[in-house]
Amino acid sequence: FDSEAHTGIGFAYGKIGQTKEALHHYNEALKINPEDPKAHYRLGYEFINAGELNKAKTYFEGATNLDPYFALAFKELAYVSAELKDPKNAIKYYKQSLKLNRNDQNTHRELLKLYKQAGNMEQVIGQYEEIIRIEPKNVFARHTLASLYKEKGRERDAVRHYSIAIKFDPNDQKAHKALAYLHTQSGKLESAIKYFKEVIRINQKNPEAYRGLAKIYELQGNRAKAINIYEKIIKIHPDALKTHEKLAVAYEKNHRKIDALRLYERIIALDPSNSSLHQKLGRLYEKSGKINKALNHYKVLSRLKPKDINNHRKLGVLYAAKEETQKSLRHYNIVTRLDPNDATAHHILANYYGEKGESLKAAPHYRELVRLDPHFALAYNELRQETGKFSLIENPIGRYNNALKILPNDPDLHFKIALYFFIVDDFNQTLKHFNKSIRLQPKNGKTHYFTGLIHHLMGNGVGAVNHMKRAEESFVKQKQVKSIADVRKHLRVYRDQYGILGIQGDGSSIASTNYQQRKYN
Fold it and tell me: Any long-range contacts for 309-314 (C-beta under 8 Å, 24+ apart)?
């Protein structure tokens, strides 16, 4: 046999899987004609089948050296290089193969795989462009290319390719949908509407297309059309919870609160653990004045999210509005456990327990307020400074109570026992004895001053201002400049904290006789 005959016989054996015989005949061919590129190529191919990639590479290199225009040899050499983890040379050989045969789609695909592995997406895009140049109706390649352009932020190129895909197939639902979203993002809402309607024409039960269309109508401010679309989706897909929620939101925005509430309740029945929806229903019922229904949803929310501080605050406020004080306090106590720095909750708890005379319960909240509220700390520390002037005696409250039995109308005794009660954080008894001291000595500016401080610590802005006003009048008459300055410093705080009218910019209150206090909650 001559070289060509051996090559042909080797090829025949290779086709039926007899690699050993094929290799024998290819080697015989090379003995006769060692410069036969086809024999080199065939040997390389058989060595691939035998799993001997390094030998295969040697023969493919031989084929390309003997015939630099042998495209298939370069292609197989690239394949072997890639398998041998040599992507740089693999890319080089695939590119050489494509120079010789530009329209080989398989080579473009193999090359784009290597570019993708290297993260070179621009080159990946280039290979897809080549594939659709060769085969314009290749839907997969065109969609992939459009998607890559979209990821790269090249929306115009993405639109161009999706539009071409539709020209080849007017019922290409995926292309219509992609164009609808691209036009929505670019603000071309009328075009987006057109493509969403095409998706619906192709598939009348596509909820995503209906939702996209409704969203555009909402962007255009056409809530009636948006509502109409959402209602259509629900008829087609009665279990589509997201659509139910979107429709409820649309009802809410369109001031159809009853419809919104009805729909939200239907959703929550299907999805009882939807915490965000319980929160929304609680808010809506609260706005509508339906406190009991609002509470029901906030209570469920507290079970679903037991550490939601804002929800416990809300429950505290609503129970207070219903005068269910103990329940309100329980939630405010939870707030302080979850967030020890919540000054508002500490104020509410301290004021309540203080007014009830439960000094042991009020005390820890007063101490926290000294840490958290600089204005509270200012008043508290001034009272502490005054108590620091007292000598240390055993059982001072008992002794002063005994003294008051003998001298019940001594204002100084009432003043001092008031401060001893302050030391043990019993603000209720402190206020009681300050008031008795004032009744006995109504023009004593100092007593009014400290009584004002206690009222402030107990959250009573009106009482704080009234007593500071009386203290101010007394200090002005006595021309006690420092004391006047101290009073006005506190009055400025009360004006800002309690929203009390009639206090001048410098803190002066003498010109005003009427005060109003903003509700604390």
Answer: 309/335, 309/338, 309/339, 309/342, 311/279, 312/338, 313/344, 313/345, 314/282, 314/286
Within its chain, how far is the Cα of 102 from the centroid? 50
Q: Are 321 and 291 in contact (CB under 8 A)?
A: yes
Do the domain assignments include residue 394? yes
Give the closest residue to 252 by CA, choosing from 271, 233, 226: 226
Does any domain span residue 404? yes
Question: Is the model's pTM score more than 0.70?
Answer: no
Instruction: Write out the residue range of the structural domain in which residue 383 sits.
Output: 373-521
Integer Cα distance of 468 and 490 in angstroms = 8
Query: What is the domain count for the chain?
Result: 1
CA distance 454 to 490: 12
- Rounded CA-CA distance 381/482 in Å is 17
CB-based contact 42:26 (threshold 8 Å): yes
Using one digit for the tens of pLDDT, what is the confidence trace for 267-306? Answer: 888 789 989 889 989 988 898 889 999 999 999 999 999 9
Q: Is residue 254 part of a domain?
A: no
> Any idea of the CA torsion for 90, 92, 95, 97, to the nearest 10 degrees?
-70
CB 452 within 8 A of CB 379: no
Phi first, then psi: give them for residue 340, nearest 5 degrees: -60, -15
507: domain CATH number is 1.25.40.10
Q: Are 17 and 6 in contact (CB under 8 A)?
A: no
Give the model confidence (pLDDT) of 353-373 as tens digits: 888 878 888 889 988 999 998
CB 405 within 8 A of CB 440: no
3-state helix, strand, coil in the chain (%, to 5): 75, 0, 25
